[in-house]
Amino acid sequence: MDQNRNLLSKLSPHLFWDVDRSTVDAVKNKSFIIQRVLEYGFMSDWKVIYALYGISEIANTAVNIKDLDQKSLAFISMLSKIPEEKFLSYTSKQSAPPHWIDK
Predict the structure, then answer these.
(1) Could you say which of 7, 10, 56, 93 has the lowest number of CB atoms within 10 Å?
(2) pLDDT block averages, 10 residues each, the chain of length 103
(3) Residue 62 contacts by C-beta under 8 Å, 6 or more apart in sequence?
(4) Which residues have a Cβ under 8 Å from the Cβ of 31 and sit 6 or more positions away?
(5) What is the pLDDT at residue 2?
(6) Domain ranges in the chain?
């Protein structure tokens, strides 16, 4: 557990701007941590979660994130070789109508 806390302390502070960083748990908040790093992290943050969880755990968690942005979805899909269609964020965004029409 101390090793996980040590690794989490290496993540960029901007990833946890809205929460008390000391309350973030590597196991309980895995999905939250992975989503933040995929969407807003630096390469150094990616290396931390890769060391903590490994690619298969990151990908299996990301598959169930409903609101993962398109860039992050494409990135983790390519790395894990899991088709984008298997991700919940892909299927949920396909059925959500846009707020405005972009022409």
Answers:
(1) 56
(2) 74 92 90 96 95 95 93 94 91 61 57
(3) 34, 35, 38, 68, 72, 73, 76, 80, 87
(4) 61, 64, 65
(5) 65
(6) 2-91
